[in-house]
Amino acid sequence: MSMLQITRIVGPFAWGWLADHRQDRIGIMRITSIATTIIFTGIFFSNNFVVLMIWMFILNSVSSSLTPLGEAATLHALSKENAFESKYGRLRLWGSLGFMVTVLLGGYWFDRFSVLTLPWLGLVALVLVTLLAWRLWEPPIEGHEPKRGQIRSTLKQKGVLYFFSSSFWMIFAHASLYVFYSLYLEKLGYEKSVIGLFWMLGVGAEVIYFYFQNVAFKKFAAQKIIAITCLIGFVRFLAIAYLPYFWPLLIGQVLHAFTFAAHHSASIKYMQGWFQSGMQARGQALYTSVSYGLGGTIGGLSAGWVWEKFGPNHAFGMSALACLIAYWCIKRASKLNYIPE
Whole-model pTM? Predict the structure, then answer.
């Protein structure tokens, strides 16, 4: 399963570079969705450990293109309408709703028909993704391909480095939540039904924020939203770690609307000031690689080490500290001369 995280570090940027070079994000998404579906069928032919590990690496290397290229195409289309604030969240929330539906129906399905049906459900899902990819459309990309070295010079700007550092630490902080939160609640004595309720509450909160995100953007600049969410993250993880009671944990899950949804949409908007037109796909891919790839991988490993060495609650205490570092980084970015908005 670690192959999923490893390929998220390198894969997205490689696909982003190809998409910007060819100026055809949707076309590449169609090809990689077909390839992913074909590669996925390999799960039916072998259960050997080495074969499955290689298969997972190849599968996720190809499928890692879909999210950043889909995001870049969406941002490009919305920029043509000047509609990011009003429409992005209402598009993005469908991913969260899809997660909720899958969890609810998946649990019922596997109880009734066995988890051995999982590969077939995965294949059906990928076939649907492939069919839907052929229904996507993106406005023509205007302008020329960036000059040689332009992406490198952009990445040398201190504001860009501080922004990516902030994103890294924020997703680093959330790794303990994604990897260990259910186990943590189980150790505290909560039943699986209650644990499921906590997760559904968090995802439901992010859906509500995405739908009403325009309200936040009308009142605050993207950089300000990122800074606020980092501080909320500090409070949230501190409560999870050292106030592990029902109501603090419940409120903490509601705060997922800010520490994930608000942080994500504000980061996407903030980043577009640096990565526009012919660099958009690579910028989005870099965000995925640095935050969810590196941040998620190193954060998960670090949380596991702290969990074993010092205790479960301190793993979330480390996440609170990471949120403070993320806050410091984004404040440093805001003090530089160039702030994209």
Answer: 0.86
Predicted confidence at residue 300, as pLDDT, reads 92
Whether domain 150-334 has CATH 1.10.150.170: the reply is no
pLDDT, one tens digit per residue, over 189-246 is: 998 888 888 999 999 999 999 999 999 999 999 999 999 999 999 999 999 999 999 9
Report how far residue 177's alpha carbon sits from residue 319's, in angstroms, rounded to the nearest whole number.
Answer: 9
Contacts 24+ apart (CB under 8 A), 138-147: 138/25, 138/26, 138/73, 138/76, 138/77, 139/76, 139/77, 139/80, 141/23, 141/76, 141/277, 141/278, 142/277, 143/277, 143/278, 144/278, 145/20, 145/21, 145/23, 145/278, 146/20, 146/277, 146/278, 146/279
Q: pLDDT band for 337, please (50, 70, 90 cuts).
A: very low
- List where CATH 1.20.1250.20 sits in the chain: 150-334
What are the distances in angstroms from CA 175 to CA 56, 85, 111, 320? Answer: 21, 27, 28, 12
Q: How many CB atoms lie within 10 A of CB 97?
A: 13
pLDDT band per the 50, 70, 90 thresholds, residue 106? confident
Compute CA distances 247 → 74, 220, 251, whole Å. Answer: 38, 29, 6
